[in-house]
Amino acid sequence: MGTAAVSAVRGSIRAASEIGADLGAVARYSIMGTIEAAEQIGGELGGAARTATRDAVKTTRDVGGDVNRVAGQAIQGTAEAARRLGADVGSLVQDAARGAVEAADRIGSATGRAVRATVAEAVSGTKALAGGQDGARPTRRRRA
User: What does the alpha-carbon distance between residue 140 and residue 5 come to, in Å, rounded to a whole number?
Assistant: First the structure.
């Protein structure tokens, strides 16, 4: 799963760059699809999130895109996929954040600092949206 997922994310970002598309949106949806595919085949979701996000950030740098935007959107896509699957949002988001920071640190110290700040903001936003559910489906309550 790992190699195929990485190739799909890289290819999506490269193609989007060629046509001038929003790399952040492409990263978000590519990562969502990668995580959902990993779940369907019984793959390890955290590893898929980390690897896909790391390579999305790295490939964005390669094509001259906005690495910070892609990192933030990757976190959002990870959180959305986790919610759809009923997985632990916090855990998967942390895995994706690690991947983004790993790639950013390899790019340079300034990029690493900027991505850390972006990722921290995105992570806190997804935790607020998850509402402490940690993968549990939200309970709907009826008004009395």
Answer: 35
